[in-house]
Every structure is written in C-alpha cells, then in structure tokens.
Specification:
Two copies of one chain form a homodimer. The first copy, chain A, has one domain: Heme oxygenase-like (Heme Oxygenase, Chain A). Chain A contains eleven helices and no strands.
C-alpha cells in the first residue's frame, strides 16, 4: 500500500476511536466523575474479569491461525502479559487482586459467578470474530489498544482521587498496560497498514475496529442497564450488598 | 481417580507406545539402519517440517481452550520451545537449519512446496482433533512425547554413524527435545492421571494416544509409499535429485 493510503487508513482508525471508544460511554463518565457507588464499581470489576480472562484465549485463538513463527512469537507476548510468568504476576492475576481488594473471593470471581449474560455474549463474540474472520480483520480487532492509554490515564487518576475505597495497589493492573498497550497497538497498526492493500481490505480493517468498539461499548451498556438505570439486574447476576452511592 | 486406576492407565498408555509408536515403522527402521538415500532423508525432513510448523498451532489451539491461566502458562512453554524467543532459536528454526543443511532453500521449505498431501492430511487431522475433542483427549493426544527420547536417541546416533552427509550441527533440533519432551510428557501424563476419573474417560485417553500414534505412523507410511516402495511419488511432491541410495 502506498504511503498516502496507509496514512489515510490510520486517520480513519483514529477517527473511529474518537467517535466510538468506550471512554465516551456514560458508565465510564460516571466512573471518571466519581459518581459510581462501590457496588457499581464491584460489578464493573467482576464483569470485566470475564473480559480479562478471555483475552489470552482470544490471543491464543489468533496464534493458532499464524503459520509464521516470527509473527506468532511477537503475538505470544500478549498471552504472557496477561498470564504472567508465574502466579499473580500477569494481568489476570492483577485483575483478581483488584476484585479481592473490592471484597470478592478469588474463587467466586474465577468461577465466573454473577457475571451479566450480556458480558459473556459480547466477549464470546470477540473470540468468535478472531477465529472466523480473515487474519487481517482478526489483527485489526485488537486496535482499540491504540486508545487505551487515554482511558487508563483518565480512569486511574479519577479513581484514586474520587473513591475513598480505591488505592494505587488495587489499580496495579493498569501500570503495565500503559506500556504494553501502545507496544501492541504499534505492532498491529503497522501490520494492517502493510497488509491492507486494497480499499476493500482497508474498509474491513475499519469495520473490525468498529466491531471491537461495539464489544467494549456493549459491556458498559450492560453494566449501566443492570446497575445504574433502570438498574434491572438480571436473574443470577451479582447484587451488590450496598446499592446506591457509597462515597 | 485412585492410585490403582492411575497406575493402570499409565501401564495401558505405555503398552500403546510399545505397540504403535513410530519407532516401529519400517521407514524409521530403514533410517536407523543406514539404509535410506540422501534423497529419502531429504523427503523425510521436508515433510516433517510441515509437522513441526503445525505443532505450535496445535498448542495454541489447545491454549485457546484453557480458561485457567496457570494451565495455559505451563502449556505456552511448548509454543516458546518451537518458536524460540528469537529468530532461529526455537525448534522450527532448528528444523529449517536441518533442511538447509540437506540442500533445501529456507524459502522453499517455508512455502511448504512439495510436501506430500498425506502429510498435510495427517497433521491437519491432529489440529482438528485438539480443537474438537474434549480437553482431556486434546491433552492426552500429546502423550506420544512419553516415547520421544527412545526414538530420538536411536535416530541421532544412527544418523551420525551411518550417513556421511549428516553431522551433529544438523541434528541440533533433537538436543533440546531430549529434555523438553520428557518434561512435557510428565505434565500431560500427570494431568490425564488426575482428570480421567471414569473408565470411559481412561479409555478416551488411550484412544487419543492411539489416534496420535496413527498421525505419526501415517506420515511415515506416506514417505515409504512415495519414496521407498512402490516409490510412486504423487504429482506435485518433492522429487530428490538423486534417487536411490547415496551412501
């Protein structure tokens, strides 16, 4: 692809991020503004555990499609980042730590009890997308990481400032992501810019990113619906001990 | 499972290995006895590249089914062993080196040109098995590694002694496998002994190992048919420059 087309693709991807990334979602805005209760943040952490736990499954699914050892070697770092090289060191271990510090038992979280069905549906749709679509689309669907530093910076500082039950130790998951996400995003962006050679392929890359922003957005929709308004918590879903605002 | 049932399962698995592992195959016997031509060994290395290249795909497929980060972390070492942590360091890189030393260009090997269709069918069946069967069966299908040190020891010493075009540098792939295979086999054997709790499950474990011995055996059948007797090399398959014995 020529330089112009590559630059134009990157511009279109950044525009999708501007318009559709979940830092624009009302649930995130409430979190950022210190307007969520502890119960609502518990529900967020519990549901997001399901997403976190499936990311290495998604990445292993992608690796299973790669014939080139070099590409698989690069991609496998994502799995290592989430699984860690030993117990508790990876992203999943740190997310479990956040859940424990919020009052959940580790076993309950890992048993995936009380997670919203809509969380499962969205996350599982992501894994299916990566398994079934073209490799170019599968890789492009990871490009939401381009926008991760933006939401992480906003989320961490706001949570530390505005929730008395949150401290830096709880949020250690996000520290490593601030360097991992841009590294991963740079690689995936370079890949799609190099491999999307036709306009049809460039549109497929954009659509894959839109799909992924939908996956993230739908998870916050489900949290908002179940725990904010109309707060119709579905049968079987986690019910916080103390509904309403707690700080 | 009680100790007796676990010990009995291991005994049955070792018996399957005794009867069906591919060190009993006539093609391996010819190799061991120094009775293959260079062209026949080239065909073996070229075809086995396809198997080698798909092993991390098989293992990524298995990882994509694991929800437990700890189990995925253990299993991911297999992918690292084959892909390496940098270019040329892993098992695939070393197998490519063997192919290059045997006279192939690296690009031709990686392009998978001239590989026997039966090689592809057998290897792809292995990946499908790992994707579609129970996790217990998927893990059990790796248990041929229990018998790998036996064939490696025999193969390496025989090849060095009996083929003047073979030296230790070419066979460096097998050095690491002598420690990796038993480590992997111990883990998988422990897993199936712990998780096969019913006789039906123990039989499924045995059947998975039988399936895998078939996958390995079928690859040597195809080589024997195409390059030894009746030496009916299929259309599109690699044709050695110098047929017949060369040493």
């Amino acid at each position: 692809m020529n330089q112009d087309a590559a630059a134009d693709l990157e511009r279109r991807l950044r525009e999708i991020g501007e318009q559709r990334y979940h830092d624009k979602h009302p649930f995130h805005v409430l979190m950022r503004d210190g307007r969520l209760s502890k119960g609502q943040i518990q529900a967020w952490a519990l549901n997001r555990y399901y997403y976190q736990s499936r990311i290495p499954i998604k990445d292993s699914t992608l690796m299973a499609r790669l014939v080139d050892p070099e590409l698989r070697r690069v991609w496998s770092q994502r799995v290592v980042d989430h699984d860690g090289t030993r117990e508790g060191q990876g992203g999943i271990g740190k997310w479990l730590h956040l859940c424990e510090r919020l009052g959940f038992s580790r076993d309950d979280v890992m048993a995936e009890r009380g997670i919203l069905p809509a969380t499962r549906f969205a996350v599982d749709a992501y894994i299916n997308f990566v398994r079934e679509r073209s490799l170019l689309e599968a890789i492009a669907s990871s490009l939401t990481e381009m926008f991760a530093p933006r939401i992480i910076g906003e989320r961490v500082s706001a949570m530390l400032a505005r929730y008395d039950f949150v401290d830096a130790d709880m949020l250690s998951y996000f520290d490593a992501r601030l360097t991992q996400a841009p590294r991963d995003a740079d690689f995936a962006l370079g890949y799609v810019k190099e491999h999307a050679k036709t306009e049809e392929q460039r549109q497929a890359v954009c659509d894959a990113l839109i799909f992924k922003t939908d996956v993230l957005w739908a998870q916050l929709d489900a949290l908002y619906f179940a725990y904010v308004e109309p707060a119709l918590t579905p049968p079987g879903a986690y019910r916080p001990a103390s509904p309403g605002r707690s700080n």
